[in-house]
UniProtKB/TrEMBL annotation:
SUPFAM superfamilies the UniProt entry points to: SGNH hydrolase
Domain SGNH hydrolase-type esterase: 12-201
Species per Swiss-Prot/TrEMBL record: Paenibacillus polysaccharolyticus
GO MF: phosphatidylcholine lysophospholipase activity
Name of the featured protein: Lysophospholipase L1
CDD domains tied to this protein: SGNH_hydrolase_like_2 (cd01834)
InterPro entries hit by this protein: Ester_Hydrolysis_Enzymes, SGNH_hydro, SGNH_hydro_sf
Amino acid sequence: MKPSPSTILFQGDSITDGGRSRNEDLNHVLGHGYAYLISSRLGMELASKQKTFYNRGISGNRASDLYARWNEDTYSLKPDLISILIGVNDAWRFMNDEPRGYTDRFARAYRHLLEETREVIPNTGLVLMEPFILKTGATLEKWEGWETLMAEYQQQVREMAEHFGAVWVPLQQTFNAALEQADASYWLWDGVHPTAAGHELIARQWLSVVQQSPLAIV
């Protein structure tokens, strides 16, 4: 049985970034999103264990952008657990026909990143979070295209989680179910980025899945 992770790293785009600082200011270094909520809760509950939490999410990142900075922002930190949420920017560029979205490299780049991670730090636990959207704001005009593309991404990430032995955190159904309580913009203000309530929803789902898995942080 593997020891409980001591160094936990959150990676991704703006949803993970959460407005984090780029310095060592402990009041802002984890941002104000789900990564902060998870870290604050576990950090308080496991204070005697003094776990270390890092947030290296960067707004606007795609899967290929993660790979480009993986040496500096992942390997150098020697994490015991890496949690990744990526995909919406790959979809955004592709749906808007932007030059950087001319070819859809999401699955290819993501798989390459995971293959190398398993080679370089084979004992590090992986948590793959499902990318998600709701029908409002940025996704409204081309909703059918967004929904189709995101469903493909979600399936690809789930298959990669199975292939690489990662813990899979489903999120789309979590947000869909939340629509019974409030409309889409209450959870994802523009169809993509979470509100405070949306971040709490993500954090609770992450904790409910990961803390019941072999990668539980205890």
